[in-house]
Design goal:
single chain; mainly alpha; two-stranded antiparallel sheet; 5% strand; elongated
Protein backbone atom coordinates (compact mmCIF):
# COMPACT_ATOMS: atom_id res chain seq x y z
CA UNK A 1 0.00 0.00 0.00
CA UNK A 2 1.38 3.39 -1.00
CA UNK A 3 1.99 5.96 1.70
CA UNK A 4 -0.69 8.67 1.59
CA UNK A 5 0.51 12.21 0.88
CA UNK A 6 -1.02 15.19 2.63
CA UNK A 7 -0.75 18.90 1.94
CA UNK A 8 1.26 19.69 5.06
CA UNK A 9 1.69 23.29 4.02
CA UNK A 10 -2.10 23.79 4.02
CA UNK A 11 -2.41 21.89 7.31
CA UNK A 12 0.21 24.12 8.92
CA UNK A 13 -1.50 27.26 7.66
CA UNK A 14 -4.85 26.17 9.10
CA UNK A 15 -3.16 25.06 12.35
CA UNK A 16 -1.43 28.41 12.75
CA UNK A 17 -4.67 30.39 12.37
CA UNK A 18 -5.83 28.88 15.68
CA UNK A 19 -9.33 28.46 14.25
CA UNK A 20 -9.40 24.65 14.11
CA UNK A 21 -9.05 21.88 16.68
CA UNK A 22 -6.82 18.92 15.84
CA UNK A 23 -9.98 16.88 15.17
CA UNK A 24 -11.26 19.52 12.74
CA UNK A 25 -7.87 19.61 10.98
CA UNK A 26 -7.99 15.82 10.69
CA UNK A 27 -11.45 15.91 9.08
CA UNK A 28 -10.47 18.78 6.82
CA UNK A 29 -7.10 17.45 5.58
CA UNK A 30 -6.93 13.69 6.23
CA UNK A 31 -4.17 12.75 8.67
CA UNK A 32 -5.25 11.72 12.15
CA UNK A 33 -4.99 14.25 14.94
CA UNK A 34 -2.07 12.46 16.65
CA UNK A 35 -0.04 12.69 13.42
CA UNK A 36 -0.87 16.39 13.07
CA UNK A 37 0.02 17.03 16.71
CA UNK A 38 3.33 15.17 16.40
CA UNK A 39 4.28 17.03 13.21
CA UNK A 40 3.33 20.39 14.74
CA UNK A 41 5.52 19.65 17.77
CA UNK A 42 8.45 18.40 15.64
CA UNK A 43 8.35 21.43 13.34
CA UNK A 44 7.52 23.95 16.09
CA UNK A 45 4.22 25.17 14.65
CA UNK A 46 2.71 27.92 16.77
CA UNK A 47 -0.91 29.05 16.89
CA UNK A 48 0.39 32.58 16.84
CA UNK A 49 -1.93 34.12 14.28
CA UNK A 50 -5.25 33.87 16.18
CA UNK A 51 -5.20 37.50 17.32
CA UNK A 52 -4.14 38.78 13.92
CA UNK A 53 -6.90 36.76 12.20
CA UNK A 54 -9.52 38.13 14.61
CA UNK A 55 -8.27 41.69 14.10
CA UNK A 56 -8.30 41.34 10.33
CA UNK A 57 -11.80 39.82 10.45
CA UNK A 58 -13.03 42.86 12.39
CA UNK A 59 -11.35 45.13 9.81
CA UNK A 60 -13.02 43.25 6.95
CA UNK A 61 -16.41 43.55 8.60
CA UNK A 62 -16.06 47.27 9.22
CA UNK A 63 -14.13 48.15 6.03
CA UNK A 64 -14.67 45.43 3.40
CA UNK A 65 -12.50 47.16 0.77
CA UNK A 66 -9.52 47.79 3.05
CA UNK A 67 -5.96 47.20 1.96
CA UNK A 68 -4.35 43.87 2.91
CA UNK A 69 -2.23 44.16 6.04
CA UNK A 70 1.54 44.47 5.79
CA UNK A 71 2.27 41.50 8.06
CA UNK A 72 4.69 38.62 7.59
CA UNK A 73 1.89 36.06 7.41
CA UNK A 74 -0.51 38.29 5.49
CA UNK A 75 -1.68 35.60 3.08
CA UNK A 76 -2.69 33.20 5.84
CA UNK A 77 -4.39 35.96 7.80
CA UNK A 78 -6.18 37.28 4.72
CA UNK A 79 -7.50 33.85 3.77
CA UNK A 80 -8.76 33.07 7.29
CA UNK A 81 -10.22 36.55 7.77
CA UNK A 82 -12.10 36.32 4.47
CA UNK A 83 -13.63 33.02 5.54
CA UNK A 84 -14.55 34.45 8.97
CA UNK A 85 -16.07 37.57 7.43
CA UNK A 86 -18.19 35.47 5.08
CA UNK A 87 -19.52 33.47 8.03
CA UNK A 88 -20.35 36.60 10.05
CA UNK A 89 -22.05 38.22 7.04
CA UNK A 90 -24.24 35.11 6.76
CA UNK A 91 -25.11 35.42 10.45
CA UNK A 92 -26.07 39.04 9.93
CA UNK A 93 -28.37 38.13 7.03
CA UNK A 94 -30.12 35.51 9.18
CA UNK A 95 -30.54 38.03 12.00
CA UNK A 96 -32.28 40.44 9.61
CA UNK A 97 -34.82 37.70 8.83
CA UNK A 98 -35.33 36.89 12.53
CA UNK A 99 -35.79 40.60 13.34
CA UNK A 100 -38.49 40.78 10.63
CA UNK A 101 -40.27 37.73 12.09
CA UNK A 102 -40.18 39.24 15.60
CA UNK A 103 -41.56 42.51 14.21
CA UNK A 104 -44.40 40.66 12.44
CA UNK A 105 -45.19 38.81 15.68
CA UNK A 106 -45.38 42.12 17.59
CA UNK A 107 -47.59 43.64 14.87
CA UNK A 108 -49.98 40.68 14.97
CA UNK A 109 -50.23 40.82 18.76
CA UNK A 110 -50.91 44.58 18.57
CA UNK A 111 -53.73 43.97 16.08
CA UNK A 112 -55.25 41.26 18.30
CA UNK A 113 -55.11 43.51 21.38
CA UNK A 114 -56.69 46.41 19.45
CA UNK A 115 -59.51 44.15 18.20
CA UNK A 116 -59.91 42.45 21.59
CA UNK A 117 -60.28 39.13 19.78
CA UNK A 118 -58.12 36.36 18.41
CA UNK A 119 -58.90 33.31 16.32
CA UNK A 120 -58.19 29.83 17.68
CA UNK A 121 -58.72 26.34 16.32
CA UNK A 122 -61.45 24.59 18.32
CA UNK A 123 -61.94 21.12 16.88
CA UNK A 124 -61.45 19.46 13.53
CA UNK A 125 -59.79 22.59 12.18
CA UNK A 126 -62.80 24.81 12.86
CA UNK A 127 -61.84 28.35 13.87
CA UNK A 128 -63.49 30.31 16.66
CA UNK A 129 -63.00 33.85 17.94
CA UNK A 130 -62.21 34.33 21.61
CA UNK A 131 -61.44 37.36 23.74
CA UNK A 132 -57.80 38.32 24.11
CA UNK A 133 -57.11 37.63 27.78
CA UNK A 134 -54.28 38.98 29.91
CA UNK A 135 -52.61 35.59 30.34
CA UNK A 136 -52.35 35.20 26.56
CA UNK A 137 -51.00 38.74 26.16
CA UNK A 138 -48.49 38.16 28.97
CA UNK A 139 -47.21 34.93 27.43
CA UNK A 140 -46.94 36.53 24.00
CA UNK A 141 -45.06 39.51 25.41
CA UNK A 142 -42.72 37.13 27.25
CA UNK A 143 -42.02 35.14 24.09
CA UNK A 144 -41.67 38.30 22.00
CA UNK A 145 -39.32 40.11 24.36
CA UNK A 146 -37.25 36.95 24.80
CA UNK A 147 -36.90 36.66 21.01
CA UNK A 148 -35.96 40.33 20.65
CA UNK A 149 -33.47 40.06 23.51
CA UNK A 150 -31.78 37.12 21.79
CA UNK A 151 -31.74 38.88 18.41
CA UNK A 152 -30.26 42.04 19.93
CA UNK A 153 -27.61 40.02 21.78
CA UNK A 154 -26.65 38.15 18.61
CA UNK A 155 -26.61 41.34 16.54
CA UNK A 156 -24.36 43.06 19.09
CA UNK A 157 -22.02 40.06 18.96
CA UNK A 158 -22.10 39.95 15.16
CA UNK A 159 -21.30 43.65 14.83
CA UNK A 160 -18.69 43.57 17.62
CA UNK A 161 -20.52 46.09 19.77
CA UNK A 162 -19.79 44.31 23.06
CA UNK A 163 -16.08 43.63 22.63
CA UNK A 164 -15.10 45.75 25.62
CA UNK A 165 -17.83 44.38 27.89
CA UNK A 166 -19.11 47.93 28.50
CA UNK A 167 -22.73 46.80 28.71
CA UNK A 168 -22.24 44.24 31.45
CA UNK A 169 -24.48 45.25 34.36
CA UNK A 170 -22.72 45.49 37.73
CA UNK A 171 -25.06 42.80 39.09
CA UNK A 172 -23.23 40.22 36.94
CA UNK A 173 -20.17 40.69 39.13
CA UNK A 174 -22.08 39.99 42.36
CA UNK A 175 -22.06 36.64 44.17
CA UNK A 176 -25.30 34.74 44.87
CA UNK A 177 -25.35 36.03 48.46
CA UNK A 178 -24.79 39.62 47.35
CA UNK A 179 -27.61 39.32 44.79
CA UNK A 180 -29.95 37.87 47.45
CA UNK A 181 -29.09 40.79 49.76
CA UNK A 182 -29.82 43.33 46.97
CA UNK A 183 -33.17 41.67 46.22
CA UNK A 184 -34.10 41.73 49.91
CA UNK A 185 -33.11 45.42 50.05
CA UNK A 186 -35.31 46.26 47.04
CA UNK A 187 -38.22 44.28 48.47
CA UNK A 188 -37.89 46.15 51.77
CA UNK A 189 -37.89 49.48 49.92
CA UNK A 190 -41.03 48.48 48.00
CA UNK A 191 -42.72 47.43 51.26
CA UNK A 192 -42.06 50.87 52.76
CA UNK A 193 -43.86 52.65 49.91
Amino acid sequence: MAKQRYDWEAIEKDFRTGRFSLQQLSHRHGPNKATISRRAAEEGWQKDLTGAVQQRTREKLSRPASEPPDLPDADIIEMAATENATIVQGHREMLVRWRSIASSFAQRLSEQIAAGKRTIEVSEGKPAEVDVDLEYVGKCMGYGTQAVERIVKLERQSYGLDLDGDDVPPERELSEDELDAKIAQYQAQLGEQ
